[in-house]
Amino acid sequence: MSLRFGLTIMAAGVLLGTPAVPVFAEDAGPTTAELTARIAGGGTWAFETRDRMTNGKPVCTESWTFRADGTATIVSGEQTVEKTWRAEVDGDGLQWLYTTSIKATTGADCMGEVADPGDYPRPESGFVLLFFNAGNGITCQPPQWIEGPDGKPAQLWTDEGCWGSIVPKPKG
What we know:
- By secondary structure, this protein is mainly beta.
- The chain has a domain at 29-51 and 61-146 and 161-168: Lipocalin.
- 15% of the residues lie in helices and 38% in strands.
- It contains two helices and ten strands.
- The strands form two sheets. It has an eight-stranded antiparallel beta barrel. A two-stranded antiparallel ribbon has the order 8-9.
- Residues 1-26 have low confidence and may be disordered.
């Protein structure tokens, strides 16, 4: 089943007054400690953009390694970025991943951008992760809050708000 179809179902759920939660996601959300353990336990993750080139390949692929000590290494093209990271589950149950880029090599990343080592460290930034039962996840902006048909607030996830996917790389 495609992600676009799943997101359409979530949007339809909002319109019909049912909870706007991913129908393919886990039923109970994790705590911050459980999310942190899940990310670190995944070790190295393969990231790819949802945007595709004409040959069907992702515009960008990266390797994201998260360590339990709160450090991370992102390899993107010829560039390597060292980061610190933390996870947080907020009051709405959103699963956030926050990173701070500490230093980078000068090579071009997967989008052709060349880092200036003098621009580091950079401020912390974050995005929402939606994990699915198979362990894969998607990277998204936080959902919009809208008024549902019953007058209660509801989360609205849009297809355009998600830009990539992460999959744990096999260990070994």
